[in-house]
Please model this.
Amino acid sequence: MTVLERDLVTVTGPDAFSFLQSLVSQDVEGLDDGAVVSSLLLTPKGKIDSWFRLVRVGDDAWLDVEAGFGPALRAALERFRLRVKVEIDEPIEPWGMAALRGDAFSGIDDVPASSRVLPVGWSTTVGVDVIGPREDLVDFAARGLDADAYERARIEAGIPRLGVDLDDSTIPQEAWLDRGSVSFSKGCYLGQELVARIDSRGHVNRLLRGIRPSDAGRELTRGADVEADGKVVGQITSSVPGLALGYVRRELEPPTAVTVAGANALVEALPGRP
Model:
């Protein structure tokens, strides 16, 4: 099996965590060494710029992000690096991840110093992701998920993917990312106003849902319209044979029958979400 591709952005220097605390949606000050949290970097209007996992490594922050999005995350952080003692970098070597699930992650005790183990507690499965230089992860990848298996596992768990299910038009609550990736008790951060306003006295007009075709072997087309009673009510964002993710109007309470490109399907609640 091959190592899955990932990107890494490192934030180092004496102001690393105070700098991030002022920008990202999660409370990252006071994290213990080795602690892992998921967080968002939002646009000033409260839409999603990036979604990543932050790992505290000594006095440094490692930001683990979807492959291809490291340079954009680094550039976004650089725009706010004013009068702070912070360095923002990416590794020179190709970065990757081994996704170990179930029994495959038991007994992980030989992780090289170049890598870190990130716990995974998806509603449908538990395990770890080992991130590090790709050449250091070959042995772990041999017992981990390949790209196709990982894609199916994340869709089954209802985990959105940056650049696929998430972009700069997405509000965190639409993808349920206010659960686990946002702190509502920390101080101000970039884009906080919209997220806080929706949480306190509003709602979003669409929600990420599972969409299951009646034909278990059918793969719904990404970008295809979801229709109910002859009206477009959403769109497919991710798909594997027999299951998809997509945004649909919030008033469609699951389970609701819909059609996608003429195929019958059912809108379902994502695991662990109403």
The chain has a mean pLDDT of 95.
